[in-house]
Amino acid sequence: MPVTTDGETVAYILRSDDGYAVQARDGATGKVRWTGARYQVPTPITDEPNLGYYEDELEIPQVTVVRQGGRTYVAAWSHGEQAGDALAKSQEVVQVDLYAMDGSGSSVAPLRRVSVPVSTVSAFTVKVYDSGGDAGLVVSWHEPSRHLGATVDVTTGKVTEYDDPSKLVPQCPSACVYGDVVAATPKGAVGTNNLGGFGVKGSWASQDIAPEAADPGKTSVGGYVSGTFAGVDSGMFLATWKSADGSDTRLWSAHDLHSGRLLASMACGEEGTDNVTAAVTSPNGRYLALDSVVFDVKAGKGLCLVGDGTRRTINIRALTDDGTMYGETDADNGGKSAIELNVNTNSPKALSEGTQLPAAVLKEGAVFTLRENGAGLRISVRQER
């Protein structure tokens, strides 16, 4: 969904016959704070079926919040072919327009436009998101035979490209052949590799921050390293590990992104996900979650919501400052049931049929999005009562 929020302001994409624009509204009052100038996205790619691009599956421009240097920005991004001119050739790019979230006025020009060169990108593998560590944006994409990445300093527009993200991982064995840039800090990008493990060169490595009950992979044969980077948000990340005792028990942990410091850990059967942008945090940063795993990082404890022989698995979609979680379970008929649960009491409650889950939580309310056939996207905010 082309909607994002910093907890106080809601920003989204507007579309018209003459292009796109970003608009931001006050989350409490709904008043328009600013509207960006109309802009054109790069020409969508529709003629590469071998890469998964078809005419009836156009990419939609997106927006995301990014924080750097004590300021909050909105990044409007899209992927396609940038037209050439008399001096420059056409090229495939990820175009990023950056706006100040605290701006005002109409037809507001972006602070800067950044184009990240990419090539032969596989369909829908492009991801643009906050680095999680006050280091701008992460841009990652997959080509048919390799994974690539870049970071964008939003205060200067500087782009740093990484042709082989796996080489960013400390202690990466020679058999590392591909990886991803998954986050970034002022000390460098966080990289992963195909043999497991992750870290920031010259700062910290997954082998050194594993929970006590986990296998860090330090003495493994053949270069295997334990640890999978699972999700990142608000200066924290989640990781999964194999157990040190050789059992099938999977361990989950929460860490500080800048130092790798362990914040909390627990055993949980949740398998994890390849989408490292999917972490969910409460506005105050106390609760951190991904799928069926949630941590109270202040108390240093976690809660596993994976089902068993009698209980259904609960997947977390939003968190509030008091630990109230909103999620969903899979019903026998293939539908979804909305669930409310407070992390501190672990007493799940099924909500009435048809209840819509929030897309994001504000400091004093929640954002809801709903696609309306033929009428675009409806964005609604419900205030706390």
3D structure, described in words:
There is one protein chain. The protein is 1% helix and 47% strand. It contains one helix and 32 strands. The strands form eight sheets. A five-stranded mixed β-sheet has the order 1-2-3-4-8, with no helix packed on it. A hairpin with a 6-residue loop joins strand 12 (146-152) and strand 13 (159-162).
Give a quick summary of the entry.
With 385 residues, the protein is mostly beta strands.
* Large-scale geometry: globular
State Rg: 21 Å
Question: Structural class given helices, strands, pairing?
Answer: mainly beta
Per DSSP E runs of 2 or more residues, the count of β-strands stands at: 32
Task: Report the β-strand fraction as a percent range.
Answer: over 45%
Q: What is the straight-line distance between the termini? A: 26 Å
Unreliable segments (pLDDT under 50, ≥5 consecutive)? none
| Spatial strand order of the main sheet | 1-2-3-4-8
The number of helical segments is: 1
Helical percentage: under 10%
Average predicted local confidence, pLDDT: 89
Strand count, sense and barrel status of the largest sheet are:
5 strands, mixed
Any key phrases for this structure?
385 residues; mainly beta; five-stranded mixed sheet; four-stranded antiparallel sheet; 1% helix
Could you give the topology of this structure?
Layout: E1 3-5, E2 9-16, E3 19-26, E4 32-36, E5 62-68, E6 71-82, E7 91-100, E8 105-108, E9 112-117, E10 127-130, E11 137-143, E12 146-152, E13 159-162, E14 181-185, E15 188-192, E16 198-200, E17 204-205, H1 206-209, E18 228-233, E19 236-242, E20 250-256, E21 262-267, E22 280-281, E23 287-290, E24 293-296, E25 301-304, E26 315-319, E27 324-330, E28 336-342, E29 349-350, E30 360-362, E31 365-372, E32 376-383
